[in-house]
Amino acid sequence: MDPTLPEELVLLQRTVRRFVEERLEPLSRSIEESDAIPRGAIDAMAGAGLFGIGVPEEQGGAGFGKLGYCVAVEQLARTNASLWNVIGGSSGLCGTAIAIGASDELRSRYLPDLLGARRLGAYALSEPGAGSDAGSLRTAAKRDGDDYVVDGAKTFITNAPIADLFIVFATVDAARGAKGITAFVVDRDTPGLTVGKNDEKMGLHGSTTAQLFFTACRVPSRQRIGAEGTGFTLALRTLDLARVGLAAHAVGAAQKLLEASVVHAKSRTQFGRPIATNQAIQWLLADAEIGIHGARLMVYDAASRADRGERITQRAAITKLYATELLGRVADAAVQIHGGIGYMREHWIERAYRDARIYRIYEGTSEIQRLVIASGLLADA
User: Fold this and answer.
1) What is the DSSP-derived secondary structure letter of residue 163?
2) In CATH, what is the architecture of 121-227?
3) Which residues contact residue 375 at a Cβ distance below 8 angstroms, ignoring those fewer than 6 apart?
4) Are 159 and 122 in contact (CB under 8 A)?
5) Of 39, 93, 225, 286, most Cβ neighbours within 10 A?
6) What is the pTM of this model?
7) Per-domain residue ranges for the chain?
């Protein structure tokens, strides 16, 4: 626990930690094996306020700000990663897009249900031919009277199989590139929208993803978020905040892996002594501790700046890149320290190792983060 946090966030930290240990972690293995999260677990997280922690009270949230959200997410990382992924996709991405870009009418219609998990949301940006290059997406939205007719496909959409609504990014004019991209809220039961089969993934079992297919899907113009052509800016603003949350989860996951590695290193005996006495093991542990400390400070700094109203694009990219690559190194070290047992499915270390790999890909690959960082450095060049 971090004593430098405000007292109310230290209390939040302890409360979420206890909830995770008592209510969520006992479900962790069954979620992995069944590749599904029980609805009761989602309801329990909603009852604990976890879907609305970072949202202002006037919008129906708990009002802890982005720093509070990151503090909670770090503790949620101490169990199966898919549990937070449901929150991240629903309120973290879908809810944030509505909160920062939608009209009061759309906010009042959707946010209360999202923050209470009575409805689940998803964020549909990536396409089969437009992942990192989101500005080149091809899903089209053609105006037809009071509606838009949407045609196209989205891919790797977190929560798609269980979502009740989607934030969909489509272009109203492909010739305008990113300036033609427009965002819409699309309900799951909208005619012309089809959700594909659940993807089979390396990790994050329990967190469902799927493709979306739009065929002459009529979306009322009142479902548009902001003006035409403002969708790309909304997508980037949403991702700025989401990347910091993802970094917070990486920090929490790395912290748990480090703690388990310390315990194992002290108890595992080889050649008549604990492996913790070997300098090679000590250095792995020390490097993990140094990296986690730095990543946590980056997360708290970026989140605090967001709470002050600063634009954090550059810092979010730095934080996401550093924290997620750190997690990859710590997960690898944890398997190495645990040896054979760390490679076995009977131990959660193996699951954590697989789950960690996606962090360097989704919500902007490590390579894209480096481009964002360099672009900021060279902006005046």
Assistant:
1) -
2) Beta Barrel (2.40)
3) none
4) yes
5) 93
6) 0.93
7) 7-115, 121-227, 232-377
CATH topology (fold) of 232-377? Butyryl-CoA Dehydrogenase, subunit A; domain 3 (1.20.140)
What is the amino acid identity at position 325?
A: E
pLDDT at residue 20 in the model: 97
Model pLDDT, residue 381: 60
Residue type, 266: K
Query: So what's the pLDDT on residue 1?
Result: 47
Residue 212 gets the label, from left (phi > 0), alpha (psi -120 to 50) or beta, of beta
Query: Could you read off the pLDDT of 46-56 as tens digits, one per residue?
Result: 999 999 998 88
- Which tokens in the block code for residue 92? 């973290």
Q: Which residues contact 197 (CB under 8 A, 6 or more apart)?
A: 210
Which CATH number, 3.40.50.150, 1.10.540.10, 3.40.50.1220, 3.40.50.2300, labels domain 7-115? 1.10.540.10
Q: Which tokens sit at 77?
A: 């990382």
**334-357 confidence digits (pLDDT tens):** 999 999 999 999 899 999 999 999
Low-confidence ranges of the chain (pLDDT < 50): 1, 3
* Surface-to-core class of residue 262, CB atoms within 10 Å of its CB (0-12 exposed, 13-18 middle, 19+ buried): middle
Q: Which of 118, 139, 156 is nearest to 192 (CA)?
A: 139
Q: What residues are labeled active site?
A: 363
- What is the 8-class DSSP label of residue 21? I
Give the total residue count for the chain.
381
List the alpha helices (DSSP H) in the chain.
Answer: 7-19, 28-34, 39-47, 65-76, 81-87, 96-101, 104-115, 231-267, 279-307, 313-338, 348-356, 366-377
Interatomic CA distance for residues 137 and 45, integer angstroms = 34
What's the one-letter identity of residue 31?
Answer: I
Q: Which tokens sit at 338? A: 């645990």
Place of tokens 């994050």: 204
